[in-house]
Amino acid sequence: MSADERAQMVEWQLRRRGIGDERVLAAMGRVPRELFVPPQVRDAAYADAALPIGVEQTISQPYMVALIGEQLALQGGERVLDVGTGSGYQAAVLAELAAEVHTIERIPELADLARANLAAAGYGDRVRLHVGDGTLGAPESAPFAAIAVAAAALEAPPALYDQLELRGRLVVPVGGSGGQWLEVVVRTPEGPAVLRTVPCRFVPLVAGR
Ligand code: SAH
Description:
Layout: H1 2-14, H2 22-30, E1 51-54, E2 57-59, H3 62-71, E3 79-83, H4 89-97, E4 100-105, H5 108-120, E5 127-131, E6 144-149, H6 158-162, E7 164-176, E8 179-188, E9 191-200
Parallel strand pairs: 3-4, 3-6, 4-5, 6-7
Antiparallel strand pairs: 1-2, 7-8, 8-9
Helix pairs in contact: 1-2, 2-4
Bound molecules: S-adenosyl-L-homocysteine.
């Protein structure tokens, strides 16, 4: 049953691997991941892996979604931006962690898929979905306390840094075919403070539409 599988995922894939933020663990325990994966891979919804969602894109591995959530250090009252909506799963997790979630996807058919998934899972009213180039952020809704990017860039997109509040955090996979690192970029009065955290592998962030 999904609820049992979800509880197992939280314990074995997340807590025992070092995710310690109780709000993140609770959020991952609430969002029904099975509603964000295609029917043909539903049996694998709680597997320790990324899964295909069509058009060569993937729903991220649960651990990566949780790690990004933890690195954003959310308290609950924030406005956040999720770049690369894909299935909508990360956006749903962020909706459990923050007050206002904007998400942006460049592929219209995935945006439609995410809209349907989010509605089915009960997050339709809690996530604002935009279609467009997420490397440009969502300037009309900025600034954000936190920005999560689910696709790898050669460098942290400057527009996203510009849309952070002071002390705001941007979590973004950075790197090319030689390998990627998950970077945390904090906006400070002196400029970006960059922390390289773990090696990772995400689909490429594609600028433009
Ligand atoms: N967070 C997603 C993971 C999706 S994979 C989930 O939980 O399912 C990354 C997504 O980023 C893909 O859907 C891809 O189409 C999208 N993407 C890539 N470049 C983008 C860009 N410049 N702007 C917005 N979305 C982008």
